[in-house]
Design a protein that fits this description.
The protein is an alpha/beta fold. It has two domains: 2-170, Rossmann fold, CATH 3.40.50; 176-261. Helices cover 43% and strands 20% of the residues. It has a five-stranded parallel β-sheet, sandwiched between helices. It has a two-stranded antiparallel ribbon with strand order 1-2. A hairpin with a 2-residue loop joins strand 5 (70-75) and strand 6. Helix 1 crosses helix 2, helix 7 crosses helix 8 and helix 7 packs parallel to helix 9. The model is unreliable at 150-158 (pLDDT under 50).
Length: 269
Amino acid sequence: MSFVKGLEYVDNRNYKELSITILKTCGNLRLIGETGTGKTILTHAIAQELKTPLFEIVLTRDTSRLDLLACDILRKGETETRKGLVLKWLEAKEGILYLDGFNYAEPNIISLVESLADFRGSVYIPELETEFKRGSKHYLVISYNPSEKSGYSGTFLENIATLRRFEGLIIDYLESKQEKQLIKSYSADYEFASKFVELAIKTRTLYREGKLRTPLTTGNLINYAMLHKEDLSDSEIIEIASSLFTEEQREVFKRLFEETEKLELKEEN
C-alpha cells in the first residue's frame, strides 16, 4: 500500500505496477471501473511512483476542445491565448494527462484524444500556429464508469478506433477481507467494519442493477468509520448515509442495513 496526499491506497490486485508497465510500454492506459473503485487515487499513486506531474480534469458534456487546448480571450483590451490543460501537458517535459469521466466526452474531444494517442501523437493549435507533439514521457490515461449508462455520449462504447489505442484495466473494489481490515484500521472495531462492508457490497449489487443511484464506496466507509470512532451510533451513521439516495431508495437502503445487522460476522484470519 502507499499514501497519496494523506489517503491510503491499498492495491491488492497489483493495479499500480500493471498500470505503470502499460504506460511505459504503450503510453496510453484506459481504466474501467464503477464509481469509488479507486481509478483516480490509482492515477495519483502512479504519478507519485513515477515522480511525474499529473494534469487531470473531470470531463463533462460542457467540456469543449477549446477548453482543453487553447482559446483567444480579451483582457484589458488586448487578445491573449488562454492555455488549456492538454496544451500545458504537452508543453511540460513529462507528465500524466488524466481525463476522468471519458464516457462524457463529446466527439470532437474523442477525435483530439485519438490524434494524441496514436502514431501521430500531436495536435495543431491554430491560435498559436504551432503543432505540439508528445514526448516519450507524456503518458495518457482515460477512465470511465460502465454503470453510468445515462452519461455516455453514445460514441465511446462503439468507437473501436479509440478503444484500440488504449490498453485497459478493469478496476474493482477491494476484496471483502482487505476492505474490512482497512475500515477496521479507521474504526478500531471489526464488527462495525464487517457490518458496513457487507452493507456496501449489497448497495454495489443494486447499483449495477439500476436499483440504487449510487453504491457505498470505500471512501464513504472510511468516513463512516471515523464518525463511528467519534461515538456516533450506527443508526446516526445510517441516517447520514441515506442522504446519498432518493426518498424512495432510502427505505430500500435502510432495509438492507436491517438485514445486515442480523448477520453473524466473525473476524477473518
